[in-house]
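Supplementary Note 3. Input sequence used for the single-chain structure prediction.
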Amino acid sequence: MSADVFVGNIDRSLTSADLKDLFSQFSSVERARIVTEKATGESKGFGFVTFSDPQEATAAITQLNGHEWSGRALTVSPARPKDSSPRPRDRGKNNSFAGPTGVKELYVTGLSHEYSSDDLRNLFSKHGNVLNAKVILDRETKQSRGFGFVQMSNVTENQDAIAALDGVEINSSRLSVREARPRSDAPRRNNNYGERRQQRSRRQ
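The predicted structure, written as discrete structure tokens, is reproduced below.
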């Protein structure tokens, strides 16, 4: 049974042959592929390596995750299956974007206050298909609150974006990129409840 490994944060000048050479220290490598842009053929900065021996795949992850290659620290992890038919869903009440099943939103902090939703989309589009990008604004001033959310089309693109952009400095601000945690759906207590209790206490 073969096993696939995801390799992210690859220098875009490197090729699939270079990737296979790097992993050739593991004898069970069957193939290596850097994912490229369909229109230009240019590298998207991540790829996959297939092993015939799952134990060697695990060894490769242990040995090469964080390994510096061509000046960049690689992200090496088990490959997750792509969602076969990603379809964007409707926005919720809080304007967050619920994407394809199994693909979590990315939570991005450390944005400079002049950064717009278009800027955020352009930044992440280098790492895949961006379904939605939104910088959260202050309701009163309409200025950026310094954070936002990005929805990529599949899990692999999430991994690549995190590997490439987490900790990167842009406009003198250092980004933090991670998968967003689900918001609590628990109902909130009516704010008038406490006021009614106080009124009852006074009457007594």
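The longest strand covers residues 43-51. The chain has five helices and twelve strands.
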